[in-house]
Amino acid sequence: MKSALLAFYRLLGLLAMLAMVAALITVGLSVLAREASWDIQGLDAYAGYAIVAALFLALPITFQRGEHIRVTLLMGKLPQRWSNALQVWSLLAGSALSALLAWFAVRLVWISWSTHDVSPAMDASPLWIPQLAMALGCIGMAVACLDALLSHLLGLPFFDTHAHGEAARIE
Amino acid sequence: MDALIALLLIVLMLVVLGSGLWIGLALLGVGVFAMELFSTRPVGDAMVLTIWGSTSSWTLTALPLFLWMGEILFRSKLSEGMFRGLSPWLNHIPGRLLHVNVIGCAIFAAVSGSSAATCATIGKITLPELKKRGYPDHMAVGTLSGAGTLGLLIPPSIIMIVYGVAANVSIAKLFMAGVIPGILLAMVFMGYIVVWALRNPQQVPAADAHVGLLAKLYEGRHLLPVVALIIVVLGSIYSGIATATEAAALGVAGSLALAAIEGSLSWRKFYEGLGSAVRVYCMIGLILAGAAFLTLAMGFIGLPRHLAEFIGGLGLSPFALMLVLMGFFILLGCFLDGISMVVLTMAVLLPTVQSAGFDLLWFGIFIVLVVEMAQITPPVGFNLFVLQGLTKREITWLARVSMPLFWLMVSFVMLVYFVPGIITWLPGLMQ
């Protein structure tokens, strides 16, 4: 079960990497298209969809590797029992919020699909398709949060903290 | 009543952030709480629509691409080449190779969007080289720590993209606005090294072997790749050929080409760089998503407007307001990262800033400068964390050796307040 979940987070992470490459190709294409005066409609919108997918699909693996930032000042200073309580609170609140997000992200896909909502930009794509990636990523995040909460309560490892040798290079 | 709500929300925000909840989720949570309690709008649908809208924008696409570019260059041999190209030229200035820290960071900042990446990339090559030659640690580390923050100020800059998207200011203009302050601040740091070296000549090690002019020029060839990249990225933005997003894509392509040419590009490195860029973007993106919704929620309950009226009613002069804001940011920077600081500020303070009559372009650079200071103040300062990884020293020692640079930045903020043209002149020349 544990390893299946981890494989799921990694798979979504891999898809996020593909989405990033897609964003690069799309933006590159739009530069080429303008220079060569090709007429490709809606590339701007596609680049946007690609980075949404990259962002949300990477949520679980980033979380699992402990790379989402938080203020650990207080947790580091408090005695074990209290910092443990804060960790449980963070995981509970995180699970609730990401589940909320996942619920409404799925609902957004459903609304876009059932009302045939299309992009207002030149591409006029049915919006439910790119929104699916956001929903999938949010579901992954909610699952990862619950996984982390249960693992914490059962005393099992969840976070892969030694993986990020260069976590500080963030801004 | 309004003041009470505002106070309640601000206290709640601080408590939730302090409790250790992941920052992006914390912003989201406070937004949900505020909207559920103080407005009648349906929360959930507004939440995802705002998040969808704010994270699927063409302008924002520049951010992940610049992050990716930085990750590729971090894994390349660019910084070694820069050290070899720069050091023969700097042996005879007072302070000698300490200047490689500053100039190296300034040049790398022009291809990288982040301060910590700049600090790490330059530091991993200069710190061992300077130590080998006997430069005092406190100067080698202190100047690196300060100069690394130029990564934020000299374009491309992740934090400027975040600010530009939040405040609806042109990112190309913001980038150009950072160029002259960036160069000036680098010169201020170099001036500091010169003054220190003249006062402590016994602490400066002897120069490397003398090199003739031709040899110097020949060694300078190692700088060509980075200069070419700078021309591609910043040149295309300045000349108007490319938008910031397009320049970012050109930058990624250029960095990949550069790494391929120097033979440091393998599938493994490509995969690691891409993975790292995606996760860093995800981390920042979650904060942006939370902040986008928080901004919406704050707007519904009218908190930013009330705050603007309240601060406007105090009758502070713009100078006093700037000092108060600077103090507030430095305090906030003690426990928050720069991106969270900027998005939180924009969610709450934008109307205040506008009604006080600050130019939003000027204010963007002001925020970047203050965030730079926050990068090197403990307990949370990302450059300090990077340096801790590189030097294995105590964070208190690192903060102490960075202090002189911190004060130089404070005086630099005063300078740009009284001479705003430093910021606004160059972007004014663009069409």
UniProtKB/TrEMBL annotation, chain A:
Residues 25-153 form the Tripartite ATP-independent periplasmic transporters DctQ component domain. Keywords: Cell inner membrane, Cell membrane, Membrane, Transmembrane, Transmembrane helix, Transport. It comes from the Bacteria. This is TRAP transporter small permease protein. The chain crosses the membrane at residues 12-33, 45-63, 84-106, 126-150. It comes from Uliginosibacterium sediminicola. Part of the tripartite ATP-independent periplasmic (TRAP) transport system. Its main location: membrane. The keyword Membrane applies. The complex comprises the extracytoplasmic solute receptor protein and the two transmembrane proteins. InterPro entries: DctQ, TRAP_DctQ. The keyword RNA-binding does not apply. Belongs to the TRAP transporter small permease family.
UniProtKB/TrEMBL annotation, chain B:
It is a multi-pass membrane protein. Residues 10-422 form the TRAP C4-dicarboxylate transport system permease DctM subunit domain. Its main location: membrane. It is found in: Cell inner membrane. The keyword Glycoprotein does not apply. Keywords: Cell inner membrane, Cell membrane, Membrane, Transmembrane, Transmembrane helix, Transport. The chain crosses the membrane at residues 6-34, 46-69, 98-127, 139-163, 175-198, 223-241, 247-268, 280-301, 321-348, 360-385, 405-426. The keyword Secreted does not apply. InterPro entries: DctM, TRAP_DctM. The complex comprises the extracytoplasmic solute receptor protein and the two transmembrane proteins. Part of the tripartite ATP-independent periplasmic (TRAP) transport system. Belongs to the TRAP transporter large permease family. This is TRAP transporter large permease protein. The lineage of its organism: Bacteria, Pseudomonadati, Pseudomonadota, Betaproteobacteria, Rhodocyclales.
